[in-house]
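Sequence design from tokenized structure. All designs in this work follow the same two-part layout: the structure record, then the generated sequence. An example of the structure record is given first.
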């Protein structure tokens, strides 16, 4: 395998209740730098729960998670938030763009929050990401006026603005037609060739089959 980007060991997750539900059961996996991984399985199998743990959004679990050589299990939320902003970009089924903001403004938000670059430098980087997505011409358009495919490409550009090594995607093509699904797949494939690690949860088996590796889950376990 390529250099390890993400290593998970013996992850267990319980949903609380009168009788706690064991949703993830002894999950261990390694993901290499530049791999394009898809996680598949029936609804309720735990795939999205696993993605949220791998992306450090969910910290209520047992086991150990190491990302880019740093143990993130047990870190306080302030440390995790900083880590996420520097190392992980997120793409969801619903793009979560601010409709009253322009495309350019939406993309700049994570970098402005990180605060490492000047506003001019962030704007320049955002325009480069829009060019990479093939949508530079809509930079000043309100995001609420875009098509679904355009909105998802803007969401990917936003995920990339801080140059993260890892992209976590939850059903990134769930609301798209076949043409836009193909566009998004090709973008992810190109990003992985450039060294980005892609981890995507999907119900789309055709999408999954074209990734580098499929992780299939059944009843909280990898099969």
């Amino acid at each position: 395998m390529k250099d390890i980007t993400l290593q998970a060991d013996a992850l267990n997750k319980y949903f609380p209740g009168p009788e706690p539900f064991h949703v993830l059961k002894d999950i261990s996996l390694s993901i290499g730098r530049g791999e394009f991984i898809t996680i598949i399985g029936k609804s309720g199998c735990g795939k999205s729960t696993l993605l949220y743990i791998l992306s450090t959004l969910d910290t209520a679990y047992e086991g150990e998670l190491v990302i880019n050589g740093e143990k993130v299990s047990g870190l306080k939320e302030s440390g995790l938030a900083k880590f996420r902003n520097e190392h992980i970009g997120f793409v969801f089924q619903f793009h979560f763009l601010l409709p009253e903001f322009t495309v350019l403004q939406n993309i700049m938000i994570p970098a402005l929050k990180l605060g490492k670059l000047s506003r001019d430098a962030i704007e320049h980087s955002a325009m480069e990401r829009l060019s990479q997505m093939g949508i530079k011409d809509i930079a000043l358009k309100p995001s609420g006026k875009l098509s679904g495919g355009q909105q998802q490409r803007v969401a990917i550009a936003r995920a990339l603005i801080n140059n993260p090594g890892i992209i976590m995607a939850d059903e990134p093509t769930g609301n798209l037609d076949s043409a836009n699904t193909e566009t998004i797949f090709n973008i992810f494939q190109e990003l992985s060739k450039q060294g980005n690690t892609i981890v995507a949860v999907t119900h789309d088996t055709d999408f999954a089959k074209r990734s580098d590796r499929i992780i299939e889950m059944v009843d909280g376990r990898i099969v």
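Residues 178-193 form the longest helix (16 residues). We note this feature because it recurs in several other targets discussed in the main text.
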